[in-house]
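On clarity, I found the account of how folds are encoded harder to follow than it need be. Since the whole study asks how a given chain folds, the encoding of that fold should be made plain. For illustration, here is how one protein appears when written out as sequence plus structure tokens:

:::
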Amino acid sequence: MSAHVTLGLPGNLAGFPATRAPARIHRVCQAIHGTWWFCSDGSGRFDLAAPEGTCYFAADGWAAIREASRLGPVTPQWVLARDLREVSVPRRYRRLAAATWKAAGRYGVTAELGTLVPYDLPRRWAAAFRAHGFHGIRHMLRHDPRSRATGVSLFDAEGPAPNPDGRRTTLEVAVVRAAGVAVHEPPHSSVLRIVP
């Protein structure tokens, strides 16, 4: 019988492996919002506590769509209200915790860091990485089956950041479906059965 290794609590992270973000990163955002929003409300996997926050990206558009939609299904209205953003990573986010490297295993990191729900333990890891001078994390994404570091979570002050917006592309239903996400019109009220 093999032992199942689970994600532990963060300890001393001195010497934890560091890496950089890809040259370009991707994020799906509502078209009316800016690209750079650092969340601190606890709704994101690696949200830091205020006054800091975390902004979530993917290494490519395919992964960004899957993460933003949580694999749906979504409506055509959801798709049309969003853009796919592609940006360069500002230099100040130069040192990221390499959570998928073999050396990270010596510190208690497992693949569960990118999949565990609820987010309490991943948030503790994010706070520990930040306390050890990291500007973010390279990690696996829960909805990306490729099992590689396609997730890029960056740390900064909570709220919007004045970073360049990069390229914006309006999402299309065909592109979202190509990412494996179902797109359906909401059912009409005439086909719904109301249960008292």
Observations:
- The mean pLDDT is 93.
